[in-house]
Design brief:
With about 475 residues, this protein is α+β, with helices and mostly antiparallel strands. It has 9 helices and 16 strands.
């Protein structure tokens, strides 16, 4: 049996021990709170110390010298948020973004550094290279001519007053028009008359140069030769006449690019196209003892077409929106276009870009929406892949500020393709392009609707046929 006094004595001992334990816990708690408070006070004092211009300069210099670019970006952006501003901060922050290959974020810092008026040649060179990597060639040209001649010659030793860059493209096209539509019965039940043109393909080449007479003004010239392989089919009284012929086109393109202020480009252009062909043409029909027959003759056809275009583009960080318009005369009728476009670099670096373009095309009071979507990305070092597609009824249409003209009489229902681009280290770029088109053409047929003065009266009708048209091209560009 436990004695009562022993129990009381035990309770007293436990109370004393429990008090000691709680006192120790409380003391440690107070010590912990004091330590946290001290750390917070020290951290706040350190933060206050960091945002002074002297400590920002010291810290960013340390990160700059040690190549700690991500830390420099964090410290530099924090300093700017707290109102710190200096040439050295902008130069170092721009360099950090540049080394991280984030050229779009590097550009505004280098621009700010250059605007101070006492930036050195290295900063201007990095700004120039950032513009080039970001696809802002016109802005890069302005900076290039602000450098010393010695540095300019190191960057582009072959640059001269006559030529800034040169381009050459060559390619061939082929189609399944003959295989799909070459054996079509063109006259039907009346055996009256019918005709169609078979598009077998074409050979083409393009040569162009760019000049830079002023730092803010560039001129592009280009000549394109197209040789189309065609066949005219004429059918009457179940007799088919085949006439193989060539259509040759010479095209002259001229474009002016103005940079009135940084990041803004205004580009008027003109494109003249001269076409020539000699083809069999129906001259009329007569009657003899065997019935009605058609008389044919070789006809030389010459045609002059043109496109006048204007585009305006403005860079806003990773965005390059634009507006364009054109007036043209193609295949004997007038057209007008107005479009909106935007190019975006969604990852804030040049290794992925997306381009969208919507155009309202008007011809003979009929409006048509044409939409183009492209995407380009880097596969490996110096090798790029671009995919593109255009949707809408494409006929007597132009794109790329009038540089590319679709003046074939057949309508393109869908255009698509891909381009591989390789950038050599010695200022040369090569590209391999495949493009495909789903086309629709018209076939003319005549049916006998009656007789007048013992001669048949014909009613002209049109039907449609589809075929595919594909092209492969190789291009080279050299920057002097």
């Amino acid at each position: 049996m436990i004695h009562v006094q022993s129990i009381l004595h035990l309770n007293k001992i436990m109370s004393v021990n429990t008090g000691r334990i709680f006192r120790k816990i409380f003391k440690r708690y107070l010590h912990g709170i004091s330590l946290i408070a001290l750390l917070l006070i020290s951290s706040n004092a350190f933060a206050q110390k960091e945002i002074t211009i002297e400590n920002v300069d010291s810290l960013t210099l340390e990160y700059f010298d040690n190549g700690q670019w991500k830390k420099l970006v964090r410290a530099g952006e924090k300093a700017l948020d707290n109102g710190i501003e200096s040439y050295l901060l902008r130069m170092r922050l721009g360099t950090a973004y540049f080394e991280l290959e984030n050229y779009f974020d590097a550009i505004p810092h280098f621009e700010k550094a250059v605007s101070t008026g006492y930036s050195d040649g290295v900063v201007k060179q990095k700004l120039y290279e950032s513009y080039i990597y970001a696809g802002r060639e016109e802005d890069a040209n302005v900076v290039l001519f602000e450098m010393t001649e010695n540095r300019r010659n190191k960057l582009r030793p072959l640059i001269n007053d006559f030529i800034n860059d040169a381009r050459f493209d060559i390619g061939s096209s082929f189609s399944n028009d003959d295989a799909s539509n070459g054996s079509i019965d063109l006259v039907g039940q009346d055996n009256a008359y019918g005709e169609q043109t078979i598009n077998r393909g074409q050979f083409f080449f393009d040569v162009g140069i760019g000049q830079l007479p002023l730092r803010w003004f560039k001129i592009n010239y280009a000549y394109t030769y197209v040789n189309k392989d065609l066949q005219k089919q004429i059918m009457f009284n179940n007799e088919k006449i085949l006439n193989d012929y060539k259509q040759k086109q010479g095209r002259l393109f001229n474009e002016f690019r103005f940079v009135p202020v940084n990041s803004l480009m205004i580009s008027p252009s003109g494109h003249y196209i001269k076409s020539e062909e000699t083809v069999v043409w129906v001259d009329g029909f007569e009657k003899d003892s065997l019935g009605y027959y058609y008389t044919l003759k070789d006809t030389s056809i010459k045609q002059d077409d043109f496109v006048l275009s204007l585009s305006v583009n403005k860079w806003i960080s990773i965005f390059n929106p634009g507006i364009s318009g054109s007036f043209s005369y193609l295949n004997g009728t007038h057209q007008s276009q107005i479009g909106l476009s935007i190019k975006v670099y969604p990852l804030s670096n040049p290794y992925l870009s997306v381009f969208s373009n919507a155009v309202i095309h008007n011809q003979n009071s009929v409006s048509n929406l044409i939409f183009t979507q492209t995407a380009e990305g880097r596969i490996i070092e110096n090798l790029w892949l671009e995919g593109f597609a255009t949707f809408g009824n494409i006929s007597n249409y132009n794109e790329q500020n009038g540089r590319v003209v679709y003046n074939d009489p057949d309508m393109i229902k869908l255009s698509y393709g891909a381009m591989l681009r390789y950038v050599f280290p010695f200022n040369m770029t090569a590209k391999l392009i495949f493009s495909g088109q789903n086309r629709e053409k018209k076939i003319i047929t005549n049916t006998i609707s009656g007789y007048q003065n013992n001669l048949p009266v014909y009613t002209r009708q049109t039907t449609t046929a589809e075929y595919n048209f594909n092209s492969i091209a190789l291009g080279l560009k050299y920057d002097f």
